[in-house]
């Protein structure tokens, strides 16, 4: 049974989500204290977090950033905000997915299961190192290393780099990367992939590998 932390200030919606997820064999933890969300998450150790943006005290972007300092637990944003920039900020802060209100509870469960499958597949990778050029990817702890400098990757960043390194020297299409990340392309906003690739490039640049990923116009990406 997966434990899910529901951080939603609308009491009616929070309760409805909790009741529905219980039927799908999730163990919901309903957050009502919006001043100490990080402490609650650390105490409960959830397998996945559902996070609203418009919250009392501090917004969901703030809390996502705080939670990312504690854990790489999957985080799905749930919000009535529909601007592309809100989605971009959510993914930049470390979110794994974004659901816009109003939403179908069936779609919520499908997205949660997809995110948990991705998380599980990463955790179950053989404990070894993958090397391509000057890059070394630790498959156990999601660190990438170049010339003795290291950077920690989120699950999405890890999955993108893992795919590019496994097929180093080959052009990988955006569609293939999205299938690898989310398994079902109908749930994907194309901007989300761009945000994750740009975030990965920034981390590679910080360790001296800023030119590792090349964009091939209308084709995809190539790790050189």
UniProtKB/TrEMBL annotation:
GO terms assigned for molecular function: DNA binding
Protein's recorded name: DNA-binding response OmpR family regulator
Keyword check for Protease: no
DNA-binding region: 127-224
Domain Response regulatory stretches: 3-116
Domain OmpR/PhoB-type per the UniProt entry, residue ranges: 127-224
Keyword entries, A-Z: DNA-binding, Phosphoprotein, Transcription, Transcription regulation, Two-component regulatory system
Positions bearing 4-aspartylphosphate: 52
Source organism of this protein record: Anoxybacillus andreesenii
Pfam family, one: Response_reg
């Amino acid at each position: 049974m997966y434990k899910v932390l529901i951080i939603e200030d609308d009491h009616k919606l929070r309760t409805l989500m909790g009741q529905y997820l219980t039927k799908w064999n999730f163990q919901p933890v309903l957050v009502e204290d919006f001043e100490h969300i990080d402490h609650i998450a650390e105490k409960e150790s959830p397998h996945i977090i559902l996070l609203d943006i418009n919250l009392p005290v501090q917004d969901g972007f703030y809390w996502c950033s705080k939670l990312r300092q504690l854990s790489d637990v999957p985080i799905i944003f749930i919000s009535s905000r529909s601007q592309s920039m809100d989605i971009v900020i959510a993914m930049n802060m470390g979110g794994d997915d974004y659901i816009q209100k109003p939403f179908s509870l069936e779609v919520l469960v499908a997205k949660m299961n997809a995110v948990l499958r991705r998380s599980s597949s990463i955790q179950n990778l053989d404990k070894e190192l993958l090397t391509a050029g000057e890059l070394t990817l630790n498959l156990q702890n999601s660190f990438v290393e170049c010339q003795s400098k290291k950077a920690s990757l989120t699950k999405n960043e890890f999955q993108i780099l893992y795919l590019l390194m496994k097929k180093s020297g080959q052009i990988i299409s955006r569609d293939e990367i999205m299938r690898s990340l989310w398994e079902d392309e109908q749930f994907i906003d194309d901007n989300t992939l761009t945000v994750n690739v740009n975030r990965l490039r920034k981390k590679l640049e910080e360790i001296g590998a800023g030119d590792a990923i090349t964009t091939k116009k209308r084709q995809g990406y190539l790790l050189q």
